[in-house]
Amino acid sequence: MPPQRLITHLRHVDLAVPDYQTQLDFYTNAWGLKAEHSDSGLTFLAAEGSPEQYVVRLRESGDKRIDLISFGAKDSADVDTLAGQLAADGVQLVSEPGTLHTPGGGYGFRFFDNEGRTVEISAHVGVREHRAIEEGESIPVRLSHVVINSPDPEGTQAFYEKHLGFALSDTLMHPRMGNMMFFMRINPWHHSLAIARGPHPSLHHASFEMRGIDEYMRGTGRLLRAGVEKIWGPGRHLAGNNTFTYFLDPSGNTMEYTTELDVLDEDAWHPHVYDFTQPEVSDQWGTANAMNEFLAAKSFNDPDKGLFVAPPV
Fold first, then answer.
1. What CATH number has the domain spanning 9-123?
2. CATH code for the domain defined by 142-298
3. How many angstroms separate the CA atoms of 205 and 87, rounded?
4. What is the pTM (predicted TM-score) of this model?
């Protein structure tokens, strides 16, 4: 049986960027998200197919950072229980459980993870009016997963397992460099969070689920025609069995279009260790451009300037 969990799913990833207007134009006019609840230097971006109020929040800032990663909980009792457990374990809370003043409201709190990222847990957030994405419509359905870079991925994996109930789905390894990426789940989706070995804490990438293969390919092609820089893809990973095409946003954050991420039978699942020097591990289809150290370095991203500094909103 999966471990007892007090969080249920990934809600949104909040980013601070210096080039706010350029980023806003990218996410709305190129990437396919919808701007809602905008304020001066702050925009909440929704995925048309998702019940979440927003999947990305953009905030104008002189510092490039992850403002926070947000996860959902079942109810306020679970929020309170988790906050109490974290505090008892010595985890630094940024805010005590209380009413949220973001779109949809709700009840939640924030804390710093082991490397100083701000994490939010919330319940009772209002459901957004959303719709079924139509055949051929090449816009994101939902936020699929977030991948973070960590110079101590084993320690970060242990933190999320111990304190938040994440389970390991699969690991990518390199014969000389050791374990390089840990895929972590909080529900039957193969991963909602993954932890990559990197030189510093930062965002590795955020991934957005498309309606299906056709819509995924149409979206990939649309961005290519628009001149958005592609890093890697299109292809299909072995771990998670999902498709991938990675692009750079104007701030240098890596963003992914994906579809068909595995949904696991958690009672029967046993984690694999995959050697990603084997070509079929990175790309089962063999259609993506070859991954090399120069491409990989693009997803190292800039060092996160928000560690152990709570976002102002």
1. 3.10.180.10
2. 3.10.180.10
3. 29
4. 0.97
